[in-house]
Amino acid sequence: MPASTAVIRDATHADLGAIAAIFSHYVTETVVTFEEIPPTVDDWARRLADLTDRGLPFLVAEVPEGTGRTVAGYAYAGPWRPKPAYRRTAENTIYLAPGRTGAGLGAALLGALLTRCAEAGVRQVVAVIADSGSDASAALHRRFGFTPAGKLAGVGHKHGRWIDTHLMQCDLTTGANP
Length: 178
Known about the structure:
InterPro entries: GNAT_dom. The protein has helices at 16-29, 41-54, 105-119, 136-143; strands at residues 7-10, 58-65, 68-79, 89-96, 124-130, 147-158, 161-171. By secondary structure, it is of the alpha+beta class. The protein has a 7-stranded mixed sheet, with helices on both faces.
Protein backbone atom coordinates (compact mmCIF):
# COMPACT_ATOMS: atom_id res chain seq x y z
CA MET A 1 0.00 0.00 0.00
CA PRO A 2 1.66 3.27 -1.05
CA ALA A 3 2.18 6.01 1.51
CA SER A 4 0.08 8.35 -0.64
CA THR A 5 -3.04 6.49 0.55
CA ALA A 6 -2.03 6.75 4.21
CA VAL A 7 -3.52 9.16 6.68
CA ILE A 8 -1.06 10.29 9.35
CA ARG A 9 -2.97 11.34 12.45
CA ASP A 10 -2.80 11.51 16.22
CA ALA A 11 -3.05 8.14 17.93
CA THR A 12 -6.20 7.48 19.95
CA HIS A 13 -7.16 4.88 22.54
CA ALA A 14 -8.92 2.96 19.74
CA ASP A 15 -5.52 2.46 18.04
CA LEU A 16 -3.74 0.97 21.02
CA GLY A 17 -4.61 -2.67 20.26
CA ALA A 18 -3.08 -2.35 16.80
CA ILE A 19 -0.05 -0.54 18.19
CA ALA A 20 0.46 -3.25 20.82
CA ALA A 21 0.20 -5.96 18.14
CA ILE A 22 2.71 -4.23 15.85
CA PHE A 23 5.25 -3.76 18.63
CA SER A 24 4.73 -7.27 20.01
CA HIS A 25 6.15 -8.71 16.78
CA TYR A 26 9.35 -6.69 17.17
CA VAL A 27 9.70 -7.58 20.85
CA THR A 28 9.35 -11.32 20.35
CA GLU A 29 10.89 -11.81 16.91
CA THR A 30 13.69 -9.23 16.52
CA VAL A 31 16.49 -7.35 18.24
CA VAL A 32 15.42 -3.88 17.03
CA THR A 33 13.98 -3.21 20.48
CA PHE A 34 15.55 -4.17 23.77
CA GLU A 35 12.13 -4.83 25.30
CA GLU A 36 11.72 -8.50 26.13
CA ILE A 37 8.08 -8.55 27.22
CA PRO A 38 5.49 -6.89 24.96
CA PRO A 39 3.71 -3.99 26.65
CA THR A 40 -0.02 -4.44 27.20
CA VAL A 41 -2.71 -2.16 25.83
CA ASP A 42 -2.91 -0.64 29.34
CA ASP A 43 0.84 0.08 29.18
CA TRP A 44 0.32 1.80 25.83
CA ALA A 45 -2.58 3.81 27.27
CA ARG A 46 -0.28 5.12 30.00
CA ARG A 47 2.39 6.00 27.41
CA LEU A 48 -0.15 7.81 25.22
CA ALA A 49 -1.47 9.78 28.20
CA ASP A 50 2.06 10.68 29.36
CA LEU A 51 3.20 11.89 25.95
CA THR A 52 -0.04 13.80 25.40
CA ASP A 53 0.35 15.48 28.80
CA ARG A 54 3.89 16.50 27.82
CA GLY A 55 2.69 17.93 24.51
CA LEU A 56 4.71 15.39 22.52
CA PRO A 57 3.38 13.72 19.37
CA PHE A 58 2.16 10.14 19.10
CA LEU A 59 1.06 9.43 15.53
CA VAL A 60 -0.32 6.53 13.53
CA ALA A 61 -0.30 5.76 9.82
CA GLU A 62 -3.73 4.52 8.82
CA VAL A 63 -4.17 2.83 5.42
CA PRO A 64 -7.12 1.42 3.47
CA GLU A 65 -7.78 -2.27 4.07
CA GLY A 66 -10.80 -4.06 2.70
CA THR A 67 -13.76 -1.74 3.17
CA GLY A 68 -12.18 0.12 6.09
CA ARG A 69 -8.88 1.42 7.34
CA THR A 70 -6.20 -0.10 9.56
CA VAL A 71 -3.21 1.13 11.55
CA ALA A 72 -0.10 0.13 9.59
CA GLY A 73 2.48 1.86 11.76
CA TYR A 74 3.11 4.40 14.46
CA ALA A 75 5.67 6.93 15.63
CA TYR A 76 6.11 8.96 18.76
CA ALA A 77 8.56 11.26 20.47
CA GLY A 78 9.38 10.67 24.09
CA PRO A 79 11.66 12.40 26.57
CA TRP A 80 15.35 11.79 25.86
CA ARG A 81 16.29 11.88 29.54
CA PRO A 82 14.30 12.76 32.70
CA LYS A 83 16.44 15.71 33.86
CA PRO A 84 14.82 19.13 33.24
CA ALA A 85 17.70 20.46 31.13
CA TYR A 86 16.84 17.82 28.48
CA ARG A 87 13.23 18.99 28.11
CA ARG A 88 13.77 20.25 24.53
CA THR A 89 15.39 17.00 23.37
CA ALA A 90 13.28 13.99 22.40
CA GLU A 91 13.90 10.41 21.31
CA ASN A 92 11.90 9.21 18.33
CA THR A 93 10.37 5.79 17.83
CA ILE A 94 8.91 4.37 14.60
CA TYR A 95 7.48 0.91 13.94
CA LEU A 96 5.62 -0.45 10.93
CA ALA A 97 3.44 -3.54 10.87
CA PRO A 98 5.19 -6.56 9.37
CA GLY A 99 4.67 -6.52 5.61
CA ARG A 100 4.16 -2.74 5.52
CA THR A 101 7.79 -1.71 5.00
CA GLY A 102 9.16 -0.32 1.75
CA ALA A 103 6.05 1.66 0.79
CA GLY A 104 7.06 5.04 2.22
CA LEU A 105 5.06 4.81 5.45
CA GLY A 106 8.17 5.22 7.60
CA ALA A 107 9.09 8.41 5.76
CA ALA A 108 5.53 9.73 6.04
CA LEU A 109 5.52 9.06 9.78
CA LEU A 110 9.01 10.46 10.43
CA GLY A 111 8.35 13.63 8.42
CA ALA A 112 5.11 14.30 10.28
CA LEU A 113 6.73 13.45 13.62
CA LEU A 114 9.60 15.90 13.10
CA THR A 115 7.17 18.66 12.10
CA ARG A 116 5.09 18.04 15.20
CA CYS A 117 8.21 17.91 17.39
CA ALA A 118 9.31 21.31 16.10
CA GLU A 119 5.82 22.70 16.76
CA ALA A 120 6.06 21.34 20.33
CA GLY A 121 9.32 23.23 20.94
CA VAL A 122 11.66 20.26 20.58
CA ARG A 123 15.09 21.37 19.29
CA GLN A 124 16.95 18.06 19.05
CA VAL A 125 15.66 14.59 18.19
CA VAL A 126 17.75 11.53 18.97
CA ALA A 127 17.34 8.14 17.30
CA VAL A 128 18.67 5.09 19.13
CA ILE A 129 18.96 2.37 16.50
CA ALA A 130 19.74 -1.21 17.47
CA ASP A 131 22.24 -2.85 15.14
CA SER A 132 20.03 -5.54 13.67
CA GLY A 133 22.18 -6.00 10.58
CA SER A 134 19.92 -3.81 8.45
CA ASP A 135 20.66 -0.22 7.45
CA ALA A 136 17.00 0.63 6.67
CA SER A 137 16.32 2.62 9.84
CA ALA A 138 19.59 4.56 9.68
CA ALA A 139 19.02 5.28 5.98
CA LEU A 140 15.53 6.61 6.70
CA HIS A 141 16.86 8.87 9.45
CA ARG A 142 19.69 10.16 7.22
CA ARG A 143 17.08 11.18 4.63
CA PHE A 144 15.59 13.49 7.26
CA GLY A 145 18.82 15.15 8.29
CA PHE A 146 19.89 12.90 11.15
CA THR A 147 23.64 12.57 11.51
CA PRO A 148 25.69 9.96 13.39
CA ALA A 149 26.25 10.88 17.02
CA GLY A 150 28.00 7.75 18.28
CA LYS A 151 27.94 4.04 18.80
CA LEU A 152 27.46 2.11 22.01
CA ALA A 153 29.07 -1.32 21.58
CA GLY A 154 27.52 -4.42 23.11
CA VAL A 155 25.04 -2.59 25.34
CA GLY A 156 22.11 -4.94 24.78
CA HIS A 157 21.75 -8.69 25.02
CA LYS A 158 18.76 -10.32 23.40
CA HIS A 159 18.03 -13.62 21.66
CA GLY A 160 21.46 -14.91 22.64
CA ARG A 161 23.53 -12.12 21.13
CA TRP A 162 25.13 -8.84 22.10
CA ILE A 163 23.77 -5.84 20.23
CA ASP A 164 25.26 -2.42 19.53
CA THR A 165 23.23 0.75 19.27
CA HIS A 166 23.87 3.61 16.91
CA LEU A 167 22.90 7.11 17.98
CA MET A 168 21.76 9.64 15.42
CA GLN A 169 20.75 13.23 16.04
CA CYS A 170 18.62 15.76 14.18
CA ASP A 171 18.78 19.49 14.87
CA LEU A 172 15.29 20.87 14.24
CA THR A 173 16.55 24.46 14.42
CA THR A 174 18.36 24.17 11.05
CA GLY A 175 15.30 23.52 8.94
CA ALA A 176 17.20 20.80 7.05
CA ASN A 177 14.41 18.22 7.19
CA PRO A 178 12.52 17.41 3.95
